[in-house]
Amino acid sequence: MDLLEELIAEIISRTPVRTIVSCKSVCKRWCNIVSEPFFSRLHLSISSKMLLLHQGDAEDVDDDNDGDLAVVELDDQHHQHDIHHEPMMRFSPGLALGDYVGLIGSVNGLIYLEDSYDDSAYVCNPITQEYIRLQDSEYTRVSYLKGYYGFRLVESNQQYKIVRFYKGRFPSTEYDLGSEVYTLGTGMWRDLGHVPFHLNEHDRGHYVSGRLHWLAGELICVFDLDRELFRSMEAPPRAPGNTDHFSILGVHNHFRNLGVLKGCLCICDITLYSELFIWVKRDYGVEDSWSKKLIITPNPPLHEGINTDMVRLLKVLKDGNILMYCDQLQLFTYHPQHKTLRHHIFPEGEFLTFGAMTYVPGFISLERSFTLEGVKRWESPQVED
After folding, report:
1. Please, which residues have CB within 8 angstroms of residue 113's CB and are 6 or more apart in sequence?
2. Comparing C-alpha atoms, which of 119, 322, 327, 109 is closest to residue 203?
3. How many whole angstroms from its chain centre is CA 158?
4. Where are the alpha helices (DSSP H) in 186-271?
5. Chain centroid to CA 47
6. Is 343's pLDDT higher than 60?
7. Banded pLDDT at 355 (limits 50, 70, 90)
8. pTM of the model
9. Of 296, 358, 366, whose CA–CA distance to 331 is shortest?
């Protein structure tokens, strides 16, 4: 890339994502510039977090529809804090995801999706409209555990890895859990063998300090992405009133899950008394470093204000408000000063939100980066006016 092209790349990278997508259609030269690895690295270095939502039509929730992926802007400046309720972009990937898709993880603009309906898994870049359907392994469709995934970049070698678990036969131990790893660019799963844990239900891997983490009873299962080794970590004590599970209207719910708060590992406990306790691991390498960071007592209470199953922390805004998502299709902001909840619907009344996660848009080309995976494309995104 010559000096003029670098200057053009610098200018384009500082425009909104929707403008960059349009720039690819201006001329062949601009399209090539935006497709270069140099541009994707430049853009990621200055990009800010947004929200990625998986949505479906509220009127057709029972139909076999693909659902949409919507990108929502977060206006999180020192003088202004808002969530744009009209999506910036909306995608219809055509992957037959329906309302069973799991938004497992996102890194550098790439997202990992699991379709629990037909056991398929994808790595996608919504901005470039590219996707990879991961090849099956010998455990796929037989014994792997839905929802138990992790997806991250290994900093030491710049490899993207996916970790998932399966039910195996290990007669010498009480644990029947095994695991396998997929490195993008290799086109295959590798078996890691036995894992000495019982994982909590539908827990996704959370990334902190080069490792993925899952809840495993009163322990935390830790996976070192670089060395590909498992170990355990002590979890903090449960909040008063929090048991393994309790029943609301005859339905059993689990009310403890992992998260990441300002780069630190955290655990959310929802109690019988509608309080949300947030524990934070202050010093990652120190055993006894869990602290009770926050006790949320909203008005109305959580169990009245939302259909609580698991509350996931998404982002702490610069004004102190906390953006969260509940697995029962609700996105909300908690305001600590007033102890109130604000619900967010995107756009108002038209769609149900099946899943949500923070997301930094990126322009990494799957086709250029991972030639063994059989990269495919879907139609161009719909850019909202």
Report:
1. 95, 97, 101, 102, 103, 104, 121, 122, 123, 124
2. 327
3. 19
4. none
5. 17
6. yes
7. confident
8. 0.84
9. 358
Closest CA to 278 of 244, 250, 239, 246: 239
Distance CA(358)–CA(241), nearest Å, equals 30
Question: How confident is the model at residue 250, as a pLDDT?
Answer: 35
Q: Which two tokens stand for residue 226?
A: 């670089």
Residue 11 makes CB contacts below 8 A (sequence gap 6+) with: none
CA 363 to chain centre: 18
Q: What would the pLDDT profile of 158-181 be if each residue is shown by its tens digit?
A: 999 999 888 877 777 777 888 999
How far apart (Å, rounded) are the C-alpha atoms in residues 246 and 235? 20
Residue type, 275: E
CA distances from 246 to 3, 153, 201, 256, 272 (A): 63, 37, 14, 12, 8
* Joined tokens for residue 167: 């039910």
**Whole-angstrom distance, CA of residue 306 vs CA of residue 328:** 8
Number of helices (H) and strands (E) in the chain: give both, helices first: 6, 30
Structure tokens at 116: 């629990």
Instruction: Give the phi and the psi of residue 316 in degrees, each rounded to 5.
Output: -95, 120
Cα separation, 119 vs 108, whole angstroms: 25
Half-sphere exposure of 385 (CA within 13 A, CB side): 0
Are 143 and 170 within 8 A, CB to CB? no
Measured distance CA(129)–CA(119) in Å, rounded: 22
The 10 Å Cβ neighbour count of residue 183 is 17
3-state class of 27 per DSSP? coil
Q: Which amino acid is at 287?
A: E
Q: Which residue has the tokens 């939302």?
A: 306
Which pLDDT tens digit goes with each residue over 11-20?
A: 999 998 888 9
Residues recorded for the chain: 385
